[in-house]
Amino acid sequence: MSMDGFIKKVEAFSDWLWGIPLISILVISGVYLTVTLKFFQFRYPIYILKQTMGSVFKKPKGKGTLTPFQALTSELSCTIGAANIVGVPAAIMFGGPGAIFWMWVIAFIGMSLKFSESVLAIRYRERNEKGEYVGGPMYYMTKGLNMKWLGIWFSLALMIELIPSMMIQGNSIASTVFETVKIPPIYTGIIAAIIISLVVFGGIQRIGRVTELVVPFMAIFYVGSAMLIMFMNISHLPGVLKLIVTSAFQPMSAIGGFTGAAIAETIRWGFARGLYSNEAGLGTTPIAHAAATTDHPVRQGFWSVIGIVVDTLIICTATAFVVLSSGVWTDKGAAANPSGLTTIAFTQYFGKTGSYIVTIALIFFVLSTMVVLVFYGAKQAEFLFGLKAARVMEVVYVAAIILGAIGAAQIIWSFLDIALAAILIPNVIAVLLLSKEVKELKEEFFTSEKYYLKDVEEEKRKTG
C-alpha cells in the first residue's frame, strides 16, 4: 500500500471514530452524569454564577496555587481557539443552522461531564516538589481507581499527542499572519516560540497571571465586534433564532451555497462542534482546575461549568449569529470555504478592518492555546518522570511551534484525532467509574452547613 493510500485509510478511520462512536460515548456519559447529579446545572444556575463570576474580586477560600479565576482563564486559553472562529461556520455549512441548536443542547449536557472531571481533579490532587498543586486524570486514575497503568497510558498519550498539536497551532498562526501581512512563516514561528517561552518558563503562576489578563480581553474584543454586527442586523435576529430552532428538527433543503442536510447530520455536526470546542470529557481542563484555590472540590467544579458557558454558549454562538445574520452562509461557493466565512462576514461590515479583527482574534486565541498546551504537556512529563523531564518537554513543545510554522510533519496530523481518542476514552471510563464519589461530594456540598447552606444564609442576610 502506498503512503498516500495508508494516510487516506487513517483519515477515513479517524472520521468514522469521531463521528457516531465517540459522540455517542460523550452524549451518553453526559446524560448519565446529568441524571446522577440531579440536573444541578439546570437547578442552580444563578447560584453557580454568583459563586464564580460574582466572586472574581473576592479572596478565594481554601488552598491552591492559582485563584479560581486564573484556573478558569487557563482552561479557556486552551478551549477558546481557532475552532470558535472557523469551526462554527463549518458546522453550519455541513449541518445547517440547526446544528447551533444541538451545539447548545450538548453544552448543557457536557456541563455535568466537565464538572465531574474538575471535582475529581481537586479531590485527588497533590503538591509537587515546588509546593504547587497538581492533578488531573492521571492522578484520579492512579489514586481514585488504583489503576496506575491507566494514568500512565493517559499521560503518555497526552504528552506525545501535544507535539503534533503544537505543530498545528504553529502552522495555524503562521499561515494566518502570512495571509494578512505576508510575513514569512519561519519568522512568525520564531516570534511565537519566544513569546510562549517567556510565559511558560515562568511557571504556573505566571501562566495564570498572563491568562487572566489576555483571556477576558480577547473574549470581549471578539464577542464585542460580533455584537456590533448583530446590532446592525437586529431586525434579522428573530428570523435567525427561528431558523436555528426549526432547522434543528427538520431536514434543511439546499439554498445558495448550502447543499442541504438531513437531521442526523445536523445533530452530529452540532454535537461535534460543542464537544470539540469545550473539551468536555477530554481530560485536559481538569489539569488547569487542579491548581485552583478552593475550600471544596464542588466549588471549583462550578468554574468548569462557566467555562462551557463562555466558550460554547457565548463565543461559538457569537460566531454563529454573525455567519447566519450576515447571510454569507448562503453565498455561492460558501461550502467550498467554510473556514473563511467569519472573515468574509466581518469584512462585509467593517471593510478591511474586519479581516484584521478576525486575524488579531485568531492570533490571540492560538497564542493563548499554545501557552496552556505546553503547561498540560509538562504536567504529564512531571507525573511520569519528575520535574526535570517537564522542563525538557517544555523545550520540545516550543521547538514544535517553529517546525509546525514551516509546515513540517503534516503527515502526523492525520493521526492527531486517533491520539485524542486514546486520551478521551480512558478519561471518560475513569469519570464514570468514579461518578459515585462525584455524587457524594456534590450532595455533601449542597447539604453541609459549611458550604451551600452557609452561602444561601449569607446571601439572605445581605439582601434582608
Please write out the topology.
Elements (H helix, E strand, L loop, with lengths): L2 H15 L2 H17 L3 H4 L1 H7 L16 H12 L2 H14 L2 H26 L2 E2 L5 E2 L2 H8 L3 H34 L3 H16 L2 H30 L4 H10 L16 H16 L6 H5 L7 H30 L14 H10 L1 H34 L1 H19 L10 H18 L1 H13 L4 H12 L1
In short:
The protein has 464 residues and is mainly alpha-helical. The protein has helices spanning 3-17, 20-36, 40-43, 45-51, 68-79, 82-95, 98-123, 137-144, 148-181, 185-200, 203-232, 237-246, 263-278, 285-289, 297-326, 341-350, 352-385, 387-405, 416-433, 435-447, 452-463, and strands at residues 126-127, 133-134. The mean pLDDT is 87.
Characteristic key phrases:
464 residues, two-stranded antiparallel ribbon, 2 strands, mainly alpha, 75% helix, Amino acid/polyamine transporter I, globular, single chain
Tell me about this structure.
With 464 residues, the protein is mostly helical. It has a single domain, classed as Amino acid/polyamine transporter I (Up-down Bundle), CATH 1.20.1740. Helices cover 75% and strands 1% of the residues. It is built from 21 helices and two strands. It has a two-stranded antiparallel ribbon. α8 packs antiparallel against α9, α9 runs parallel beside α18 and α16 runs antiparallel to α17. It starts with a helix and ends with a helix. Its main location: membrane. Belongs to the alanine or glycine:cation symporter (AGCS) (TC 2.A.25) family. This is Transporter YflA.
